[in-house]
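Appendix B. Chain record.
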Amino acid sequence: MDAGATTTALKADELNSNTLGKLKSHLSHPLLLLCSGIGVIVDSYYFWIEDKHSLQNIIVFTIYLALCAAIPFWPKTICGVTLAWYLISAVSSTSEIDAMLVGTWLCLAIAFAFLHISIALCMLCVSVVTLLFITPTNAVIAIVIFQVCASLAGYACKLHISSIEQHRQLELAQNTIHVLTLERMLATRLHDTVTNDLSTIVTVASTRIIDASNESEKRPLEDIIARSQHAFVKAHEIIDILRDENRTDNSEQSLCELKQEITVIFDSEHKRLQDLNLVGTCTIRGYDGPLLVDDAVRAEIEGIVTEAFANLRRHCSPPTDYSIYAEIRRDMFNLVEMNALNMDIQPLQPSGKGLQLHRHTIESFGGKLVALQDQQTWILRVEIPLNQSLFAVDK
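Structure tokens predicted for this chain:
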């Protein structure tokens, strides 16, 4: 995969996502759309059944209908504008306000559902007071009753929405507590099993060193002790993370000598493979200057390199040949691992869980992990974009 093509594809996906998000934000709620449509139809019917209409009245009412039709798309803004237009029309007597009722009731309901209660109450009071001075007593009582009912309906919707949000937050809190509980249980189990077994391995190996008669017997035991102690430390780091202690933020970026760090891993792992009589080559090439890399990407690169060597140790037997090649560019990390499969001896049955975990993480960075078997050869290809490393700082 070409780095430029990868960057272009990611930007295109982000643009499409933002466009869809903006479009969805302007789409109306089906219930608001239905109520607005009913209001427009009912008010239009009562307006047009009148015998005579002046051109001025038609223009005023058309603007009112347009505002009502726009309510579902911008409810918080249009509800106040529509109500203000209704009251101005009522005060100026330029239109028959008897045909401008359902839309105003919807506006008050929306105000009580989505706006602050004080603003909604002010809108209702202004409407009632205005109508008291310009409308006959019997008519204004009926209008006010319907406006109050609409306001109560809107406030009921507000309480319902608030109840749903509180229920959602409660579920989120319960899920968080559940996850924390599981993490602490995992931390306890990890401590009681893995770390205790590692301590036992170190103790047994240390005892055997005392009984070792020559250097060739001591060397592998010393390596076992060193690796077990290293695993012991890493296990405790995981325990601390599960217990929410010493948790670090991997979303930050930092300058690193990526090639130098990978070379150290290559040299150490290559030596371990030689001790196991596994024959092969380890090659790393590319940019050797400092790179600005996301900490999460950097940790994943180190993890997948270590996993590739670990798979060789677990699933290959001497005299299996292997080749591991890594290339570091300013914007991309590439890894290719190939090894011959020993069909006669299979020390461990592969589970594939390690590569599945790495594939999920790598794909979240916009990278790619491909693992396949070609006849008697196992091939692993990894491509990981270095994200902000395009802004690398040269020495």
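Further analysis of this model is presented in Appendix C.
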